[in-house]
Amino acid sequence: MNVYIPEELAGKVWWVRGQLRDGEGAAVGINYNNEGEALPNRGWHFMTADIPQGLPEPLTFDQPFRFLVLQTAERIDTSVVLDNFTAIYDLDTDLAGPSVIVTPAENETINSKNTTLRLQVFDPSGVDFDHIELSLNGEPISDAEIQNNGEDAFWVELNNLDDGWQRIDYRVFDKLGNASAGDTLFNVDTGDSRIFIGGEHDVIFAGGTFNLPVEVVKPETFRNFTLTLNYDTTKTALNVLAEDMEFDNVTEYPGFWQGTFSGFSENVHTLAQIELTVDGYVQNSAASLVVSGELDGKDFNYPVLKKDIGGKFVVMQDHVIANQQTRIFIADANGEAAPGVDVERVYYDVANDEVIGTEAIGTTDDYGLVRYLPRDEDDSSVELILRAYDHDGASLMSTVMSLTEQLSTAPRHVFFTPGVDSSEVQVTWFTDTAMDATYAYYGKNGNPNQHASMTESEILPFFYGPESGVVRVHHATFTGLEPNTEYSYYVANDFARSETFTFRTDRQDDEVRIHLFGDTQTTNDYNENHGSPLVSEIFDKMSAQLPNPDLIMHVGDLTEDMSDYQLVRQFLEALEGQGRFGSVMFVPTMGNHEVYNEGRYKYESIFKSPANGPFEAPNKQSVYSFDYGNARIAVVNTELFTDEEWQNMMNWLEDDMASSDQTWKVLMLHRPPYEGNKDSGNEWSKRYVPSAVDRAGIDLVVAGHDHMYSRSVTMAGDRPNPSGATYLIAGSASMKFYDADFGGIVPFADVLYDENVHTYTTLHIQGEQMEVQTRNMNGQLIDRVTLTTRESRGF
Ligand SMILES: [Fe+2]
C-alpha cells in the first residue's frame, strides 16, 4: 500500500505491522518493515508485507496497518495516510509508480517570483503523460499549462509567485496505472511581503521555554491571517502571546491552536510570540511544530519546525557501582562543571512514558559534583535514570547503569602473555573492584618469594548481557626471568591469593610447541558445541596431539562479544588453571567480534602484550611481536579501516621482521589475506598483507575468521611459488561454519576442509622444519605436513 509518512515521523524507529485472519479465524501477523528499522523520509512510500503461504483461506484484513512503538516514550501525536491497497501475486510485476525529482528542490529558496517547476520522471513501463495531477498551494494546475517532452520530464511556468513557502503536490502514473505521489515546499524570498517564523534555536532543551516569533515583512499589504499550530502534547506545551497585534477567534485544545490576526499596519513587526515549553522529563527526542493557516484567502504553507531536544545539563557518567559511594559529575551543555544544580533519580515507566516518582540526590558543588550511594537492588545491575535541573532547564533523563560486582576477593582467570622479551611475562587476573591492591609473587625452585616489579589494575564496567557488572582486571610483570627455568607464581591482594602455578620459560632452543585455534566465539546459549565446554575439549585434544605446549595461539573471535562479561568469563574459565592458562603462555589476536560495542577497549584493558606495534590505545596491545624459541611471531589487528593505519602497520611489520634473525617468521591475524569465502570482508587484509609478507620474508601466515580449515601451497606475488609463504586458516571452534566458494584461497589450497565439523591444529617447530597437524573433533586427520622456512628452501 502507499503510506504517507509525515515529517515528524521520518526516521522514527517504529515497527510497521499488520494482522490478517485466516479461514479458521487465527491471527496472522505481517511486517511492512523489520523491528528496529527506521521509517523512511517524509512523503509517500509503497510499503509491502509478505503473506505466509499455505494459510487456510479465505484471508481477511483484521488490522491492515499498525505502528508498533515498543517504548511509549517514543510515541508522538501524528497521523498517516494510507492509499492504494494492492494484492501482489507476482513479484515480477511492475508495482511501483515513476520515480520523480522535483525542481525547485525541497526547502530550496529562490529569489525570483517566476520559475519553471520541473518534474523529472522515470519508469521502466513508461510514464503516462496524459494523467498528471499537479497543484500549487492546493490549487490544481490545468493540463493546458503543463508541457512535457513525452519521455522523461514535464514542467510548468510559475509566474507572480508570492513571497513565502510554496507547496507543490503531484501524482504521476506509469502506463500500468501505478502512481507516485508527493509534496514538496520551496521558498520564494525577493524581499517582498511575507510572514515567517523567526527565532532560530539550534538546540532546545528539556524543561526550557522557547520563543518563536511570528514575523512579518511589509505588513501593510496583508489584511487577514489565520495561524494554525499543531504540536506534540507528549513533549511540549504551547502558548501564543500577542505582541504588535491582537488576535481573536481563538480555538484551542491540547495539541492545537488557531487564531486570526487582522488589522495589519506598517508598525507591525512581530505579530505574536509562539511560546513552546518542553517537558522537563524527556529522553533523547525531537519536538515538532506543524505550522499552517490561511493568508488573505490563500493557503499559508510552512515547513514543519522540527528541533532536537537536548539537555541544559549533561550527566557525565555512564555507570556507578552498586553500594559504593560515588560522585557524579554534572556539566553544562559546553561540558563545563555545573555548580548549584539539583540532581534526582527518576522512577520512570518507559512503557507508559510516565514518571512514577523521583528521589532527590543532592545539589552539585563548585566542581559540578554530587555524592551518591546507589543502593543494590536484587543484587543485579540495574538502569538508573538520573536528571539534573535548575529553575529553567534540565538534562535529558539519562541512563546510568548501577553495576554489581561479578567477582569476589579471590583472584580468577589467571593467564599470562608475552613480555617485551623472553626475560619477561605479563600476568593478568580478575577480582571484584574493591581489591585495589595488586600483588604477584614469583620465583625459582618452587619458591615464589619475589615481588612482581610492575603491577596495575583497572575497573572494567560491562554493560551488556545477563552478567552486566563490574570487575577489576589486574596486571603484573615478572622480570629478570632466566631461560629454560621453571618458575612458581601466585597473585594476591589484601584478602585472598590464587593457587600457585608453575611455568617454564622459553628454552631458547630451536623447538616451539604451539596449540593453534580460533573463532571460539563463546556464546551464552550453553550449546555444547558452542562455547566454554568446546574450548576446553579442543584444548584437551590439542594437548593429546602435542603435549606440553609452549604457546596457546588464538587467531581471534575469542567470544561472541568482548563487551559482554558472561562471554569473556566463559572463554577464560574454559582454559583456567594449571596445565592451561595458568602455565602456558597465551598469544591472542583481535578479531571482528572483539570490536562490538566497547569490545576494542575491553580487549585493550585485558590482553597485555609487548605493545611494540605502531599504535596507541585502543590498538596498542593488539599489534605486537615477540620471540619464542627460534621463531619471531608477529600479531596484527585486521580490525582497522583506513589505508593510513594499514600502511603504518605493514611498515612496522616489515621493519620488525627485518630486525629479527630468528629461523622462523610467523604472522598471526584474524581476517585471512586469501579468504575462504566471499563474505569474509578481508579486503584490507588482501590488499596489504601478501605483499608485506613477501617483503618481510614471513614463512607462515595464520588466520581465522572464515570458519574452515585451509592451507595453501607456498605463495609469493599472489601466485604459487616455491619461494613463498604458507597461508593457513585455522578452522572453526564454534557452531558457525562457512563453505568455500571459488575465489580467495581455493585455487591455491593444498588442503581445504569446509565440512561442518570443528578442527584444531598443532604446530611443532623443530629447527627449520614445522610439523602442521590438523584433526577434526572426531579425530580424523585433515592435514599433516612439514613446512620449511623460505631460507632453508634456498630463498
Ligand atoms: Fe571473525
Automatic annotation (TrEMBL):
Keywords, alphabetical: Signal
The keyword Plastid belongs to this UniProt entry's keyword annotation: no
Superkingdom, natural source: Bacteria
Stretches assigned to the Calcineurin-like phosphoesterase domain: 513-709
Molecular function GO labels: acid phosphatase activity; metal ion binding
InterPro entries reported in the protein's UniProt record: Calcineurin-like_PHP, Metallo-depent_PP-like, PAPs_N, Purple_acid_Pase-like_N
Stretches assigned to the Purple acid phosphatase N-terminal domain: 411-505
Protein name: Purple acid phosphatase
Organism: Vibrio maritimus
Taxonomic lineage of the native organism: Bacteria, Pseudomonadati, Pseudomonadota, Gammaproteobacteria, Vibrionales
